[in-house]
Amino acid sequence: MKTSQDTTSIQERCGEDIRCRRCRRLLMKGLVVKVEVKCPKCGSLQLFGGRPECGMGE
């Protein structure tokens, strides 16, 4: 069972702002497993994947 302290440490390590690599516009916040997103500002299509050290699946 995870405590609020465990959740906070996961968010501190892995919770992040996901920004467009081309124009740096903020696209989303949070933990990402796998997502493909098109930036509404510049139209760049990007793929973001998760990190195994984020504790996903625990």
Quick summary:
By secondary structure, the protein is α+β, with helices and mostly antiparallel strands. The protein is built from one helix and four strands; from the N terminus they run αββββ. It is 19% helix and 33% strand.
What are the key terms here?
single chain; about 60 residues; alpha+beta; two-stranded antiparallel ribbon; two-stranded antiparallel sheet; about 35% strand
Alpha carbon gap, first and last residue: 9 Å
Computed CA radius of gyration, to the nearest angstrom: 13 Å
Q: How many strand segments?
A: 4
Number of DSSP helical runs: 1
Series of H and E elements: HEEEE
Task: Identify the overall geometry.
Answer: globular
The averaged pLDDT comes out at 75
As laid out across the biggest beta sheet, the strand order is 1-2
Helix fraction by DSSP (H/I, runs of at least 4): 10-25%
**Biggest beta-sheet profile:** 2 strands, antiparallel
Percent in strands: 25-35%
Return residue spans where pLDDT drops below 50 for at least 5 consecutive residues: 5-11
How would you classify the helix and strand content by structural class? alpha+beta
Give an overview in words.
19% of the residues lie in helices and 33% in strands. It is built from one helix and four strands. A hairpin with a 6-residue loop joins strand 3 and strand 4. The N and C termini lie close together (9 Å).
